[in-house]
Amino acid sequence: MSMISETRLIIQEINHTQTGLQLDETQAKIYRTSSVSLSTEARVSAAQLTAEIPVSEGLVPRPGSMVILEATDEEGMFVRVFVGFVFSYSVDRWGVISLTAYDAMRYLQNPATGKWVGKNGVDISEIVRDVVKTCGLEQMAKEMQAETVGVKPIRLIKIAESGLNIIDEILEWAQLKATADENGVTTKGGKDYAATRAGERWMFFDNCGTLVLCTANQMVKKVLGWDEPPVIGTGCAVTEMSMDVSIDDCANQVWLLRAGNGGMSGWKAEDPERVSQWGPITYYEKIDNAYCRNDEQMQLRAAIELCSRDIEKRSINITTLGLTGLRAGMLVRINIPWLADYFGEVSKSKLVFLDSVTHNWEEGTHTMSLKADSLPGDIDLDIWKRMTTTVTRTKSKKETVEERRKKLMAAYEYEKQKAIAMGGTESTIWEVNSLITVDKLKGN
């Protein structure tokens, strides 16, 4: 890994309404900067760049300007590591500009309104592409590089919700819908349903101006061009390291609720051994009918949620010399022998998942701070065998047909006006909880 790394920023004002955002080298300004930070997270979010540059020839970058960060790699060649846009800046008394930029994922915070219904032959990747287009990035949606997820879309109705949140929900569904056969977990009917987080995790990110949808184990090849995951700890200087063990985000009891006609139904999964050890820690979630349509699927979902949450969460924080291009969501190998006493098999170069990565370039020195989570394995069959599952149902006072029709019509009118105000049409509005069509809602 490089001991000395140079960076440069290329900044140009652009017209965002033009088709395609191309760099015009005759108009761009190049800055050498001594302080740059680039942060990425594994969750569906925008990469953030912060940098300090001197005021040059009276030029101050305007918000919306394109920013490109290039850094030298292991061979001393400049490579592009970030393409984004200025969102804020400040100027101090010494004439130093501190700017903050985000990649194109930032624009996916725009609200999206739409109705997506699962159809045979349509892949979830096409729904992600459509959400990107709905958020205003039509050209990037067209050029998006997407692997086939292999899961058809669900019935999904969203009104003025962040595109990032919608995509995150879609990819979470794709993971839950993946097969669990390899873990010996299937529904009684033999249908594949809801894998644990042991399955391949789908990542969606901006790779220097191109949106990419792929699995975590494909990222190293797509971004770095390497066939094998990088190894951290061998041949590089690890300057700081710590380990976190926590049950804060764990659960030994899982409650899932689903609305039904006339009341709520609840599914509970519990690990008595962990309750005795940790005390009761409960995870609660209300499940949309679109995800789990029957009792069998709900019971399996509760069991799988418990198996994925009923384990101590362990992560390591490492500061080391930088590897240009490394980003959150990748799988790497940690080869630090003494960690075996605390982190189990990690010292034997087991794959770990990078939850966050921050690169820092200061005065020619490139370092990076990593937060790595141990890659979840298969479903813990010991938990599966000792857990208990129960189903409870509570029924509310039964409504008359007229009372329910009035309530649904009021909800429908509200959502219709909200959608129209956001640029949608009446045809996009369905009553979400009961999934009743507009005609049925109106009593036809």
Outline the secondary-structure elements.
Elements lengths: L6 E6 L16 E4 L2 E7 L6 E7 L11 E7 L5 E14 L4 E7 L8 E6 L7 H11 L3 H6 L1 E2 L9 E7 H15 L24 E6 L2 E6 H9 L6 E2 L5 E9 L6 E8 L2 E8 L1 H7 L3 E5 L8 H15 L3 E9 L9 E4 L5 H4 L7 E12 L2 E10 L6 H6 L1 E8 L5 H21 L16 H4 L3
Parallel strand pairs: 9-12, 13-19, 15-17
Antiparallel strand pairs: 1-2, 1-5, 3-4, 3-20, 4-7, 5-6, 6-7, 8-10, 11-12, 14-18, 15-16, 16-22, 18-21, 19-20, 20-21
Helix pairs in contact: 1-3
Number of helices: 10
Q: End-to-end span in angstroms?
A: 69 Å
Assembly category: single chain
Indicate the overall shape.
Answer: globular
Structural class: alpha+beta
Report the C-alpha radius of gyration, rounded: 25 Å
The tally of structural domains comes to: 3
Task: Kindly describe this structure.
The protein has 444 residues and is α+β, with helices and mostly antiparallel strands. It folds into three domains: 97 residues; 184 residues, no CATH class; 41 residues. 22% of the residues lie in helices and 35% in strands. Strands 1, 2, 3, 4, 5, 6, 7, 13, 14, 18, 19, 20 and 21 form a 13-stranded mixed beta sheet that branches. The chain has a four-stranded mixed beta sheet with strand order 17-15-16-22. Strands 9-12-11 form a three-stranded mixed beta sheet, sandwiched between helices. Helix 1 packs antiparallel against helix 3. The termini are far apart.
